[in-house]
Amino acid sequence: MYKEVRGLEGKYSVDENGNVFSHISGRKLTSYLADVGYYYVRMAGKTRSVHRLVAEAFLPDFLEKPQVNHIDGDKLNNRISNLEMVTASENATHAFKMGLRVGVKGENNGKAKLSAEDVTTIKSLLLKGETGRSIARKFEVSQATISLIKSGKMWI
Questions:
Q1: Is this prediction's pTM over 0.85?
Q2: Does any domain span residue 156?
Q3: DSSP code string of 7-51
Q4: Same domain? 42 vs 83
C-alpha cells in the first residue's frame, strides 16, 4: 500500500517497505546508500532519507517526536514495522544498548584535556602526597577531575 509523500502529494508516494514511487515518471525511484549509512532518494530537486519518508507516511505520531529510530539497529531496514519515532535522548540510549555507539574513553575522546602520560604523572604526584588542588592547577583541570582520577572513577 502506497501513501503520498507529505508536501509532494500527487507527485510521489512511499510504501511500507521503503519503496518510493514517482507519479511524474511512473517509476520506482532508485535509492542510494549515503556515507552516513542510510538510504536516500532524490525527488523534486531535494535529497530525502527513505526511513523518514516511511515514518512520515505511516507513523501516526511522527509529529510528536523529532527522530526516527530503526528498532533492530539496521539502518538499511526501512520497513514500517522496524521504525519508531523517538526523542534524541531515546535514540542515543537505544544506540548504546544495541552496541551501535560506544563511548570513547581516555585521550581518544575529543574532549579529553589529559593524556595517558599526564594521568600517570598525576597518580604519581598523588602518591607522593601532593594536593589535588596544586595538581589541578598544574594540569589546568578541576579538582573534581583529580579526585575522580584518585578514586579510580576516571582514567582507570
A1: no
A2: no
A3: T-TTTEEEETTS-EEETTTTEEPPPEE-TTS-EEEEETTEEEEHH
A4: yes
Instruction: Give the model confidence (pLDDT) of 41-68 as tens digits.
Output: 999 999 999 999 999 999 988 888 999 9
Q: Looking at the structure, tell me whether residues 10 and 77 fall in a common domain.
A: yes
In degrees, to the nearest 5, what angle opens at C-alpha 106 toward C-alphas 105 and 109?
65
Indicate if 31 and 48 belong to the same structural domain. yes
Question: Collapsing DSSP states into helix, strand and coil, what is residue 100?
Answer: coil
> Structural domain of residue 41, as residue ranges?
2-97
110 in any annotated domain = yes
Alpha-carbon gap, residue 40 to 22, rounded angstroms: 14
User: 77: domain CATH number?
Assistant: 3.90.75.20
- Reference 50, options 14, 9, 86; nearest CA is 14
Contact 85, 61 (CB under 8 A): yes
Torsion (CA) 100, 101, 107, 109 in degrees, nearest 10: 150
The torsion angle over the Cα atoms of residues 54, 14, 77 and 38, rounded to 10 degrees, is -80
| Phi/psi at 29 (5° precision) | -75, 145
Domain-embedded: residue 28: yes
Work out the number of other CB atoms within 10 angstroms of the CB of residue 62. Answer: 18
